[in-house]
């Protein structure tokens, strides 16, 4: 071939529609169980109740955007505590890495939302149109009345599932029973209908039409996980040392009778027929293989029918593939440096988050120094600085005293609030609320510092004794 010779071909491969066949076995049962638990949790969790006391929402899981709160059973997070979500993202990433190090694309095959909803859509499709052969034959005689009726029913059920998927999502942002009633009577906010429409369309498109295309072309994880796996990771594997050479059952019997080599694979294509992405696992690990284990169930069923041992396809490692070729026994190392590192990272971040939750304060204070003007020169020579103080009360309604430390001779005053018996301003803050007040700090000429000085502006619970401080500075003016 000369340098100026090149091969012309299509840039994109035309999609070949996949018709996954139903299969029975332990991995299929695991997938059904995960589907039931995950979808049941997603659809029903907004209706779970949790008593937080008077004046607070009783929805167990609620993202309360108007009041800037996130509720998860007994946990209540404020916008200032967004670092908890950062910790959750780190734990999620490390868990994904750990799953990949242990057994490849476990997430993709069993728990990914695309996999779960696509499984549900496939179940509806089989229930309405029949199994693999019936669906393929139906597509060949597409314009018959019976086929059109079935396809219409299938798409109607798909839209209903997608609609409830979008509807369940918006229920996490408002009181679920109330919002359901408002949606049914067309009194809900327009934004709720908009998001239901968007999520209905995307669920219907991805789970009903894109399907394996999402896994192969749209999702970045198959490409990332290839860099994270190693030779000790368990992956769905066709054991070539046992399966090759392939031949029919009768030919294999004849070959074995003559002491010739015969593999256990009978080339029945059942592993391909049940694969939701149409992968032939006998070609090795591929981008489209989501490691769901359905080909294992299919192959084990065939092996039982022909009287051969199960396990021709199974979760195995590259190391064991090589050891079997050498006639050695397989070994497994789930516990190794990378799995220990991932586990340690999950434990450390999780421990820090639990400690922070257990010791988190129910009060806080934020201070903003007024910039215009930065200070006020008084007629007697003294100087006044003004501050905007925001008090956060994450508990029941209570009173807080305001004080300033680090500035001898300072007097304080809060606009519109009288001082309490201790001589300090007392600020009432409602349950689970914030309150903003204007604080004036004044220093007479005799006590006025020569340079800017750091001060601590603090609040103290008048009943419980808790305390919170915020640091700012006092500007003495032009001296």
From TrEMBL:
<keyword id="KW-0408">Iron</keyword>
<dbReference type="InterPro" id="IPR017896">
    <property type="entry name" value="4Fe4S_Fe-S-bd"/>
</dbReference>
<feature type="transmembrane region" description="Helical">
    <location>
        <begin position="186"/>
        <end position="207"/>
    </location>
</feature>
<dbReference type="InterPro" id="IPR013783">
    <property type="entry name" value="Ig-like_fold"/>
</dbReference>
<dbReference type="Pfam" id="PF13746">
    <property type="entry name" value="Fer4_18"/>
</dbReference>
<keyword id="KW-0411">Iron-sulfur</keyword>
<feature type="transmembrane region" description="Helical">
    <location>
        <begin position="340"/>
        <end position="358"/>
    </location>
</feature>
<dbReference type="InterPro" id="IPR014116">
    <property type="entry name" value="Cyt_c_oxidase_cbb3_FixG"/>
</dbReference>
<keyword id="KW-0004">4Fe-4S</keyword>
<dbReference type="InterPro" id="IPR051684">
    <property type="entry name" value="Electron_Trans/Redox"/>
</dbReference>
<keyword id="KW-0472">Membrane</keyword>
<keyword id="KW-0813">Transport</keyword>
<keyword id="KW-0479">Metal-binding</keyword>
<keyword id="KW-0249">Electron transport</keyword>
<dbReference type="InterPro" id="IPR032879">
    <property type="entry name" value="FixG_C"/>
</dbReference>
<keyword id="KW-1133">Transmembrane helix</keyword>
<protein>
    <submittedName>
        <fullName>Cytochrome c oxidase accessory protein CcoG</fullName>
    </submittedName>
</protein>
<dbReference type="InterPro" id="IPR017900">
    <property type="entry name" value="4Fe4S_Fe_S_CS"/>
</dbReference>
<keyword id="KW-0812">Transmembrane</keyword>
<dbReference type="Pfam" id="PF12801">
    <property type="entry name" value="Fer4_5"/>
</dbReference>
<feature type="transmembrane region" description="Helical">
    <location>
        <begin position="82"/>
        <end position="103"/>
    </location>
</feature>
<feature type="transmembrane region" description="Helical">
    <location>
        <begin position="156"/>
        <end position="174"/>
    </location>
</feature>
<feature type="transmembrane region" description="Helical">
    <location>
        <begin position="30"/>
        <end position="48"/>
    </location>
</feature>
<dbReference type="Pfam" id="PF11614">
    <property type="entry name" value="FixG_C"/>
</dbReference>
<feature type="domain" description="4Fe-4S ferredoxin-type">
    <location>
        <begin position="255"/>
        <end position="284"/>
    </location>
</feature>
């Amino acid at each position: 071939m000369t340098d100026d010779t090149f091969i012309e071909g299509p840039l994109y491969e035309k999609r070949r529609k996949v018709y996954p066949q139903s299969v029975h076995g332990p991995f299929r049962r695991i997938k059904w169980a995960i589907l039931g638990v995950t979808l049941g949790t997603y659809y029903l969790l907004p209706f779970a109740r949790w008593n937080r006391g008077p004046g607070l929402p009783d929805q167990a899981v609620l993202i309360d955007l108007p009041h800037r709160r996130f509720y998860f059973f007994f946990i209540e997070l404020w916008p200032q505590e967004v670092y908890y979500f950062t910790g959750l993202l780190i734990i999620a990433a490390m868990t994904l890495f750990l799953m990949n190090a242990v057994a490849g694309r476990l997430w993709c095959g069993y728990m990914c939302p695309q996999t779960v909803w696509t499984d549900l859509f496939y179940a509806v499709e089989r229930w309405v149109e029949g199994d693999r052969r019936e669906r393929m034959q139906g597509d060949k005689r597409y314009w018959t009345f019976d086929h059109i009726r079935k396809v219409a029913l299938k798409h109607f059920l798909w839209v209903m599932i997608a609609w409830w998927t979008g509807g369940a999502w918006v229920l996490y942002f408002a009181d679920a029973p109330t919002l359901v009633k408002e949606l049914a009577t067309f009194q809900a906010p327009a934004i709720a209908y908009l998001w239901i429409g968007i999520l209905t369309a995307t669920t219907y498109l991805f789970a009903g039409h894109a399907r394996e295309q999402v896994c192969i072309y749209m999702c970045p994880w198959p490409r990332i996980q290839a860099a994270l796996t190693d030779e000790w990771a368990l992956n769905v594997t066709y054991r070539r040392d046992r399966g090759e050479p392939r031949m029919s059952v009768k030919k294999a019997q004849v070959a074995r009778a003559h002491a010739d080599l015969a593999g256990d694979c009978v080339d029945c294509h059942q592993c391909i027929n049940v694969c939701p992405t149409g992968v032939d696992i006998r070609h090795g690990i591929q981008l489209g293989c989501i490691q769901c284990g359905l080909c294992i169930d299919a192959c084990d069923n065939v092996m039982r029918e022909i009287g051969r041992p199960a396990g021709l396809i199974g979760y195995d490692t590259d190391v064991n593939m090589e050891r079997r070729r050498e006639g050695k026994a397989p070994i497994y190392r789930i516990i190794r440096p990378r799995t220990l590192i991932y586990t340690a990272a999950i434990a450390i971040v999780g421990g820090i988050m639990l400690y922070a939750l257990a010791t988190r304060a129910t009060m806080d204070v934020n201070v903003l120094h007024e910039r215009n003007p930065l200070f006020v020169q008084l007629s007697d020579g003294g100087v006044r600085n003004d501050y905007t103080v925001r008090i956060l009360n994450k508990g029941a309604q209570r009173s807080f005293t305001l004080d300033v430390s680090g500035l001898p001779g300072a007097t304080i005053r809060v606009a519109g609030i009288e001082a309490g018996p201790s001589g300090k301003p007392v600020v009432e803050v409602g349950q689970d609320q914030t309150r903003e007040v204007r604080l004036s700090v004044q220093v007479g000429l005799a006590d006025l510092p020569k340079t800017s000085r750091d001060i601590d502006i603090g609040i103290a619970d008048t009943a419980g004794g808790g305390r919170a401080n915020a640091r700012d500075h006092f500007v003495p003016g032009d001296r």
